[in-house]
Amino acid sequence: MNVSQDLSILHLILNASAVVQFVMAILASVSFMSWYYIFRKWFTVREARTQTEQFERDFWSGGDLNSLYQSAVNNRHGTGSMERIFEAGFREFTKLRSQKNLDPKDVIDGSRRAMRATYQREVDNIDAHLAFLASVGSVSPYVGLFGTVWGIMHSFRGLSNVGQATLSAVAPGIAEALVATAIGLFAAIPAVVAYNRFSHEIDRLATRFESFMEEFSNILQRQMR
Hints:
Elements: H1 3-6, H2 9-14, H3 18-59, H4 65-74, H5 81-97, H6 104-126, H7 130-159, H8 167-223
Helix pairs in contact: 3-7, 3-8, 4-5, 5-6, 5-8, 6-8, 7-8
């Protein structure tokens, strides 16, 4: 078997020590899961952004609030986060406004609390599994480094029984150990990039939700006069 065959990636993985192979298997599984969540989060964020833009167009087009509310209630499964925030606030506003001898400020405050509770749930749903990507990005390189260190230690222990250590004897052991670090980086880099990108997008959506809640509260306050 020639040197190129000895140092092929598949050969290095198959001939690594049990501990290094275990580390590689963990990193490969984590990498697969992170890519699954990356694609899932990409679709989730894109859908949330599209639904938010659509509702903003409908809301600011000057339509009747009651009509928008009925549309949100009738199509609850197809509504976006901002529409559900609107639905919660308007439902609470309507309920409190019908009560007699209730201060207008209390009506608006109740509507704001309802919107804030729904806002928190919606942001938590969009933000789900983002912490997993952060953990993969921060921990995977160290797990890979552990596999590398262990593999190199294993190689040098094997060399203790050899009379003369040559490059051909040392290279395969060190190379197979370094594969663990490479797999760790392969798992970590996409997770870090995706986490930063999605965090930015979710922060922008959260800001739009908060701005809408303030503007909608002002509209409701004007209706109380």
